[in-house]
């Protein structure tokens, strides 16, 4: 096997000296530098499969990054992100020079006492990037080189592949591991739920969808046929002429706080955007004055947790519901959830794996990043519920269908969209009414280039900078000048820069504060290039 691996690996040569890291969401860089990484991750996935005696997933995507980039993510048996110790192996294997690749492999096999005669099974999927087909072929080469069985799903969204892996490893209990199985489970639940809708007119069923010119657009088309017109989607940026993620998609809309290009929004019309691999979603609308309103991950978490909490009460279930957020959560959302909704709020570091892990600790964990990635965990308990009173029965039925609509493996734009649409329909709520549950504090995100972003170390779920000395004191002093203000800085886990977040009572204060904090980072943490300029 070893000689086969080293021979085959010659066909996927590593550029000498190139070092890459398995980051927050896997490997991500220009597609040109990834062929060897793909092959080697095919090898690693078969080892992981033998170790866990389960199917492992490999998704080829760079999410919201530009079209020229690509990346890879490993999926563990329950459909969750690969466990951190194996992220380390991924980095080691990706960076091993050709001559030592075999010994690097052997190292992992020994450390993990992997029995190479076990069978191995790997599911592979890819997004619509021009480079994805070739790169996923390299993954397949790696898997077959170590004798793993392959199921190649071809073009799928990231959450769809997570879902398939979970289905396979739970032997059908969670669902059927085919695209048809996925669409059927979701659409049946959706149709059942919308039977409880209040005045569900065609107007209310209408939703404008920005597909980011990516995989989500293709998959929404496939889903549509199963929805029996209960949701009437008008698709924009479907990939037929625009570039992936370019001036569109969830990340663009969230960061720029404006609508994507290529969408035709009438006043008050409900719109949503997916990101490039359809694991994030944000909603928005223009009001009659033409001003833009964003409903991000925090608003989504609030809508879903409020709905679930109500159902739990109606079903007579005494379960603890919690919302997991990150430092980016708007201060208003946290305040609303804690003070008005009285749900537990927990804050973790940025990155899906951290939120997912934290959410597992509660009876029901709703987790969302402000950027629109999120889902709900541990709902299966309810399935055993046998309510006797009619009202309870009704609530229990709603809960059951809601569970079936949620992708518990990971945040899923398509599933989240259907959950949101169902909740709005059941409550007879317009997007404006949803938006008015609480008012976001104005906020601003900026980035600063520094010589070495590792200079900045954070604590308290990234809300405080521990190093360089004095930086946090400066931030504290700046924040004090404004009302309802908050700010933090953190090194990005996906790009070579430092991110700055500020919020305050007015947009002007948030903008000025963000700029002042950027300057503090620039001066105290080794800024490079031009000094940050004030906004506008
Ligand atoms: C990745 C993460 C996302 C996080 C973002 C932060 C996953 C699947 N995705 O896209 O959750 O919000 O990185 O990026 O974990 P940053 O560290 O560059 O700010
Ligand atoms: Mg994504």
TrEMBL record:
A GO molecular function annotation here is: magnesium ion binding
Q: What is this protein called?
A: Phosphoacetylglucosamine mutase
Say which domain of life the source belongs to.
Eukaryota
Domain Phosphoacetylglucosamine mutase AMG1, by residue range, is: 178-282, 296-427
The prosthetic group or cofactor this protein requires is: Mg(2+)
Q: Where does Mg(2+) bind?
A: 63, 275, 277, 279
PROSITE patterns listed in its UniProt record:
PGM_PMM
Q: Which gene encodes it?
A: PGM3
List keywords of the entry alphabetically.
Acetylation, Carbohydrate metabolism, Isomerase, Magnesium, Metal-binding, Phosphoprotein
Q: What does this protein do?
A: Catalyzes the conversion of GlcNAc-6-P into GlcNAc-1-P during the synthesis of uridine diphosphate/UDP-GlcNAc, a sugar nucleotide critical to multiple glycosylation pathways including protein N- and O-glycosylation.
| Residues the record lists as binding substrate | 369-371, 490-494, 499
Q: Where does the Alpha-D-phosphohexomutase C-terminal domain lie?
A: 448-518
The EC designation for this entry is 5.4.2.3
Record InterPro entries: A-D-PHexomutase_a/b/a-I, A-D-PHexomutase_a/b/a-I/II/III, A-D-PHexomutase_C, A-D-PHexomutase_C_sf, A-D-PHexomutase_CS, AMG1_II, AMG1_III, PAGM
**Family assignment from sequence similarity:** Belongs to the phosphohexose mutase family.
Q: Can you tell me which residues form the catalytic site? A: 63
Question: What general EC class does the enzyme of this chain belong to?
Answer: isomerase
Keyword Hydrolase listed? The answer is no
Q: Does the keyword Nuclease apply?
A: no
- Catalytic reaction list: N-acetyl-alpha-D-glucosamine 1-phosphate = N-acetyl-D-glucosamine 6-phosphate
One GO biological process term is: hemopoiesis
């Amino acid at each position: 096997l070893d000689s086969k691996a080293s021979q085959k690996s010659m066909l996927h040569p590593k550029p000498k000296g190139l070092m890459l890291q398995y980051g927050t969401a896997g490997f991500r860089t220009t597609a040109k530098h990834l062929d060897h990484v793909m092959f080697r991750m095919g090898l690693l996935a078969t080892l992981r499969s033998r170790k866990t005696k389960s199917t492992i997933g490999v998704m080829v995507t760079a999410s919201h990054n530009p079209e020229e980039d690509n990346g890879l993510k490993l999926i563990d048996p329950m459909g969750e992100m690969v466990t951190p110790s194996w992220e380390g192996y991924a980095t080691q294997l990706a960076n091993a020079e050709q001559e030592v690749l075999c010994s690097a492999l052997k190292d992992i096999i020994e450390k993990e006492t992997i029995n190479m005669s076990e069978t191995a099974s790997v599911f592979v999927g890819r997004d619509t990037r021009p480079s994805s087909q070739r790169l996923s072929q390299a993954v397949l080469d790696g898997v077959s080189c170590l004798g793993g069985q392959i199921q190649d799903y071809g073009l799928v969204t990231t959450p769809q592949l997570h879902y398939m892996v979970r289905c396979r490893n739970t032997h059908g209990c969670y669902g059927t591991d085919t695209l048809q199985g996925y669409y059927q489970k979701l659409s049946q639940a959706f149709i059942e739920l919308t039977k409880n809708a209040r005045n569900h007119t065609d107007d209310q069923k209408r939703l404008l969808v920005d597909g980011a010119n990516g995989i989500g657009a293709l998959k929404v088309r496939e889903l549509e046929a199963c929805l029996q017109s209960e949701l009437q989607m008008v698709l924009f940026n479907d990939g037929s002429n625009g570039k992936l993620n370019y001036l569109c998609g969830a990340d663009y809309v969230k960061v720029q706080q404006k609508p994507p290009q290529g969408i035709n929004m009438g006043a008050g019309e409900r719109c949503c955007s997916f990101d490039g691999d359809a694991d994030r979603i944000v909603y928005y609308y223009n009001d009659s004055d033409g001003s833009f309103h964003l409903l991000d991950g925090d608003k989504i978490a609030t809508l879903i947790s409020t709905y679930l909490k109500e159902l739990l009460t109606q079903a007579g279930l005494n379960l603890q519901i919690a919302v997991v957020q990150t430092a980016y959560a708007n201060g208003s959302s946290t305040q609303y959830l804690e003070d008005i909704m009285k749900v537990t709020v927990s804050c973790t570091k940025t990155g899906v794996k951290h939120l997912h892990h934290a959410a597992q600790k509660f009876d029901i964990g709703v987790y969302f990043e402000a950027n629109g990635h999120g889902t709900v965990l541990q709902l299966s308990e309810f399935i055993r519920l046998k309510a006797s009173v009619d009202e309870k029965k009704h609530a229990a039925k709603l809960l059951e269908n809601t569970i079936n609509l949620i992708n518990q493996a990971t945040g899923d734009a398509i599933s989240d969209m259907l959950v949101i649409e169902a909740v709005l329909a059941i409550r007879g709520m317009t997007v404006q009414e949803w938006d008015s549950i609480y008012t976001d504090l104005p906020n601003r995100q900026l980035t600063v280039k520094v010589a070495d972003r590792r200079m900045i170390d954070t604590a308290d779920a990234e809300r405080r900078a521990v190093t360089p000395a004095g930086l946090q004191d400066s931030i504290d002093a700046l924040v004090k000048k404004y009302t309802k203000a908050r700010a933090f800085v953190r090194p990005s886990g996906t790009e070579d820069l430092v991110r700055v977040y500020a919020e305050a009572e007015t947009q002007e204060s948030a903008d000025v504060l963000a700029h002042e904090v950027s300057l503090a980072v620039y001066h105290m943490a080794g800024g490079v290039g031009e000094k940050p300029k004030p906004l506008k």
